[in-house]
């Protein structure tokens, strides 16, 4: 277990001493699994819904990945093909990713709460050749499968039988650092979701940003868990793959619905030492009385996706006996800013300092680095190992993401004299709700397909638990009477057909939407208008 971050007494020393070690030839399957074959180490601890516990070694994980790679290749799936992974936190999901990487194919993780429309868009956009799922996922795919001509292979309930007949050895593809490995879809404010394409270097690129907030991860006895789904970059590349890279076991357990008391008990029962807990989970856990009674022994907690306030930080010190380290990133360029209480003081409200190896700055409106204390755009200098290769089949959108050598995040921030960065807000209207970054454009486009909706704007309004709640402001079609029954119908429409985490928890009806002279909806005006009513 060798960390990428070198020993150092201060943050300045750490930044000065750090050097990237990205081999020209690398494959995520080798780095996250094959390198530990023969070690006897435990890779996954799978807690079944029944309560049964299954421990899976790296050797077994490797054999399963080889078998699945052979099954996929027998079905005609080849290097460069996109493979959808629609599975919960379970060994099968990890195996699906490792098999895909070792084939030189491209993994496309898909969220379990996606409805058929959201799944169809993503699978069609990347022209996925194969999908690995379970019975629940199969039920969602069957109605749309005939509209996905590229999808030649769907592996679901009979997969175990096919793998049992396959060889447990497989020749891993020779891949380079910049060869494509992974597409994770992200949303902006306009148009459809974009697929952020990452190369095999993305795993090593994440490691410093995992090691720092997890207090010099890995240490002897570490064991990692997160309630975040592995379909998102936070679950997959903040937890699962970096832990496997370091030979640290990961607790795999899918909660049907997040239960804060169960989370405390789960971490204590399984001796979890490291956790990624999104701010919404922490807010819910804050309501559990006397958390010390569970006897948890956490060593480190990282949190990201929303800003943590002083109140949550102080509660965390009492509840866990440690300081929660906030971090920052986005799907295109993740884990580039972080706190590390063991190395430098944590300032409430600040998301930390630039992680060693990443050049993060605040840019002014001219694209120049702004002086300390000046608000501007949060940006990361290219090239950077954790940075995406580009948006899948969207060269124009990729170019728009950059300002010279800087990737512009779309977020606003400010930096102080010591290099602490504070997130101030978004300039692209993305909604942050329960740890999810939600692009209103996707939800608006979908709502327009509802028979009662003439026009719609989706905004985020302040929410004490979720940070923001998704709110739909709707102009009904002529002859439609807006009422609570229609609002419920619209909510169910999004929840069941698009995604449960995208549905508007608040629906408002109006006669017209405020627009600019060019016809753009003025979401800022709507946010002010409806926030003032509360």
Automatic annotation (TrEMBL):
Pfam families: AMP-binding (PF00501), AMP-binding_C (PF13193)
Example of a GO biological process term: fatty acid biosynthetic process
Keyword Iron: no
GO molecular function: ATP binding; CoA-ligase activity; fatty acid ligase activity; fatty-acyl-CoA synthase activity
The keyword Nucleotide-binding is assigned to this record: yes
Residues of the AMP-binding enzyme C-terminal domain: 442-520
Top-level division of the source organism's lineage: Bacteria
AMP-dependent synthetase/ligase domain segment(s): 40-392
Keywords: ATP-binding, Ligase, Nucleotide-binding
Family per record: Belongs to the ATP-dependent AMP-binding enzyme family.
Protein name in UniProt: AMP-dependent synthetase
Protein's organism: Falsiroseomonas bella
């Amino acid at each position: 277990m060798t960390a990428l971050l070198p020993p150092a007494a201060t943050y300045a020393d750490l930044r000065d001493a750090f050097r990237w070690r990205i081999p020209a030839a690398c494959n995520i399957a080798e780095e996250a699994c094959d390198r530990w074959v023969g070690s006897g180490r435990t890779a996954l601890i799978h807690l079944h819904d029944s309560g049964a516990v299954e421990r899976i070694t790296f050797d077994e994980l490797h054999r399963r990945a080889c078998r699945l790679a052979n099954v996929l290749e027998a079905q005609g799936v080849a290097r460069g093909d996109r493979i959808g992974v629609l599975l919960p936190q379970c060994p099968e999901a990890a195996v699906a990713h490792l098999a895909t990487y070792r084939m030189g194919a491209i993994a496309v993780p898909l969220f379990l709460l996606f409805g058929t429309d959201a799944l169809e868009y993503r699978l069609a956009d990347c022209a996925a050749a194969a999908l690995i799922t379970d019975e629940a996922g199969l039920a969602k795919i069957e109605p749309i499968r005939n509209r996905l001509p590229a999808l030649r292979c769907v592996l679901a309930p009979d997969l175990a039988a096919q793998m049992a007949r396959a060889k447990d050895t497989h020749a891993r593809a020779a891949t380079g650092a910049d060869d494509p490995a992974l597409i994770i879809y992200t949303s902006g404010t306009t148009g459809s979701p974009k697929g952020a394409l990452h190369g095999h270097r993305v795993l090593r690129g994440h490691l410093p940003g995992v090691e720092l907030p997890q207090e010099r991860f890995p240490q002897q006895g570490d064991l990692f868990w997160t309630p975040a789904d592995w379909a998102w970059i936070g679950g997959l590349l903040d937890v699962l793959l970096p832990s496997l890279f370091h030979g640290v076991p990961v607790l795999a357990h899918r909660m049907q619905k997040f239960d804060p008391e169960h989370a405390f008990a789960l971490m204590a029962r399984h001796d979890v030492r490291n956790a990624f807990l999104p701010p919404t989970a922490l807010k819910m856990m804050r309501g559990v009385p006397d958390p010390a009674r569970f006897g948890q022994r956490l060593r480190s907690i990282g949190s990201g996706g929303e800003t943590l306030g002083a109140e949550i930080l102080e509660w965390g010190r009492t509840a866990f006996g440690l300081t929660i380290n906030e971090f920052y990133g986005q799907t295109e360029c993740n884990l580039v800013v972080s706190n590390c209480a063991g190395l430098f003081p944590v300032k409430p409200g600040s998301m930390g300092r630039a992680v060693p190896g990443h050049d993060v700055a605040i840019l002014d409106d001219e694209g120049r680095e702004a002086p300390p204390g000046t608000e501007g755009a949060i940006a990361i200098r290219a090239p950077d190992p954790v940075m995406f290769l580009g948006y899948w089949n969207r060269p124009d959108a990729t170019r728009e993401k950059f300002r010279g050598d800087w990737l512009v995040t779309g977020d606003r921030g400010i930096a102080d004299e010591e290099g602490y960065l504070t997130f101030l807000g978004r300039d692209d209207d993305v909604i942050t709700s329960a740890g999810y970054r939600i692009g209103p454009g996707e939800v608006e486009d979908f709502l327009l397909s509802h028979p009662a909706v003439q026009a719609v704007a989706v905004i985020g309004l302040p929410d004490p638990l979720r940070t923001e709640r998704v709110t739909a402001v709707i102009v009904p079609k002529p002859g439609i009477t807006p009422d609570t029954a229609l609002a419920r119908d619209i909510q169910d429409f999004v929840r069941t057909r698009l995604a449960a985490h995208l549905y508007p928890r608040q629906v408002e009806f109006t006669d017209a939407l405020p627009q600019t002279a060019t016809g753009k909806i003025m979401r800022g005006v709507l946010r002010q208008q409806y926030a003032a009513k509360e």
